[in-house]
Design goal:
The chain is mainly alpha-helical. The chain is built from two helices and two strands.
Length: about 80
Amino acid sequence: MLRSKIQWYVLLSASSLVLVWRLIDLAYEVAYEEFYMTRAGFEIKGFAAGVIEIAIILASIALIWKALKNLLRLHSANSSR
């Protein structure tokens, strides 16, 4: 369990970077109508690549939400002391 603010800030930053990167990549792929991705040595194309792209985006959003929620909780716990 992450308890330090710095750990949550690192998670928030990393997740935000991944989200922006994947959204830019998704926009590019939609513009050129070609979904293509390479993961763990596999070449994934078409619908499956789009599904994985959306899953990565949703996971990033979930991690950002969790980090923000815990940062707010830590901040309110420190301010009430």
